[in-house]
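Researcher: Please generate the 3D structure of the following complex. Treat every line as part of one assembly.
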Amino acid sequence: MRKIGMQEIEDIALGAALLGAGGGGDPYVGKLIAHGAIKECGEVTLLSVDEVPDDAFVVPIAMMGAPTVLAEKAIGGEEYKRLRDMVSQFYNREIFAFMPIEAGGVNSMLPFAAAARLGTPLVDADGMGRAFPELQMVTFTMAGVSATPMALTDEKGNSVIFRTITNKWTEEMARSVTMSCGGAVSVSLYCTDGRIVRQYGVRDIITRSEGLGRAIRTVRQGAGTPEENFLAAAEGIKLFRGKIADVQREVRGAFNFGKVILEGIGEYKGHAAYAEFQNENLLAAVDGAILATTPDLICIVDSETFTPVPTDALKYGKRVLMLGLKCFEAWRSPAGLELVGPRYFGCDTDYIPVEERAKGGVL
Amino acid sequence: MRKIGMQEIEDIALGAALLGAGGGGDPYVGKLIAHGAIKECGEVTLLSVDEVPDDAFVVPIAMMGAPTVLAEKAIGGEEYKRLRDMVSQFYNREIFAFMPIEAGGVNSMLPFAAAARLGTPLVDADGMGRAFPELQMVTFTMAGVSATPMALTDEKGNSVIFRTITNKWTEEMARSVTMSCGGAVSVSLYCTDGRIVRQYGVRDIITRSEGLGRAIRTVRQGAGTPEENFLAAAEGIKLFRGKIADVQREVRGAFNFGKVILEGIGEYKGHAAYAEFQNENLLAAVDGAILATTPDLICIVDSETFTPVPTDALKYGKRVLMLGLKCFEAWRSPAGLELVGPRYFGCDTDYIPVEERAKGGVL
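Model: Done. Output below.
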């Protein structure tokens, strides 16, 4: 158990944005919301999964929708109070702690805002270890945990409780409500017991985010070059360094689809790369060879500051470093790949771990 | 209090389809579902609104979606059980009786199926006195009654509870879920007290439907010509008699939009008419002059049998009689016209009661 205050939030937001793998929203927006809540209501109590009793009721808090819309909508304290009341009333159980469901600039932060405002502790675990675009894409789905009963509320005060036969149906139905509510809503789903979180959740993800954020902040203090320090701290596999030559975007449904094209710089001069995304980066290729695919994390960061660049902030001319991170081990199982492997997203390739694909590198 | 069996259902379905004003679904489908339930589980107890205690909990049962889809989906008994359990659990109240929310071939019948299968009485009232395409279009909206908490379930077993800030938002959100569930779902909404039903509901609507159905069935037994007998029993204003020359259709969202063009026959030879619809008929014009608009009922029936022809069964060459019926009085108030008047539906005309518009007639 430890307290999370303003500086920790700063680092967690930054590190979580890296784990967002291009998605999960703008960490600046997320940080502002968490900071505002902590300033007003006090620090948040963070619990390790081992401090959560087996039968304790743990409730994830997240936003659902397109990251580009998140930044344009106000997120007040009322939504969390409403979610809490809906969930505790519908389940007829008292909430022991909140939890993030995915890592990312916004969805790692909102649970802090909820925890601060309602005086509820937060568990140091999530259901992805990164960000993914659809709500059935959590480790809990592999464990047979239902996403529902799920609570959804918008900033206007509308609220919905879903109970569905599969988590894919939850996605389908909640997505359509998200669209009709303007593209971004607050949700609680995969409400479950401490025992399940400990067994299937991605543990210590907040602490890992914090470490990554701290490493980015102090990247010039290490033994090697900043890039070496960054890659070492992130346990990242370097994929490419280049200048953004083009970004193709399309909003379809509640998703941001697109592709970013990079022209090599420095040691990559004369080479070319691209990454495809659906909210998050899905596939990275250099000189036509695929070097990484989902569920491994494909992260694009500023080549000087190592600040993560979300897919909706990719801009022509920006110089970036593209790296791969190994995903949470369970995603590499057949069940995991069925949920979040490249073929699910329409990429015509089998999954091969990033550390194998990128072994040779381009240079 | 009286019992409703197979013959009564036959007449109610037929009469309700007339009150559906072109919408409300195919009475044949509705009748089959109600007959099946009554055959299996016994007759239904119908209560007059005066037999419902003030504080009794009355729960409407309906389908939401495009009438053309209704006919293609199976409707089982499980949906009603699920709706009952959702509503009674969420409100924590015991259900005293079910109620239809609109008149129409399907939505007048489904409450009978639910009542038969669950052994629950049915109240002889609804919230429209006809059919309308959107769910906020009920007399209860004028009374400030909320459509929510509203329960929705599909035939697969998915279920949703909505709680919205306005009935228009209920429509918006429930409609998008209806679409994602394949276009037709079962719902309970405007769950309310006996006192409210008595004060704002359209009373005796089932009995009126039954009388209309019986009149159509026995149209050749009266004093005048069948047409005279029919118009007298329906208190209908004759608008046109013609052959369907064209039907334009478009499915947009979960609605059937379109226009039917009629060429005059008999005394109307040489004249032309049309009706525009959105599930239900919205506007009828003869030789370019508008003779009736929503919220008055524009009904199209077979010119020989006087069987109602729903908008999704309009077919080239069919000979029909078009008539107007006065709507429930409350719809003619400013609040009523704001909800269901011609301008709401995009018809560029003020509301003038059908008995005034059609006074001169075309002949």
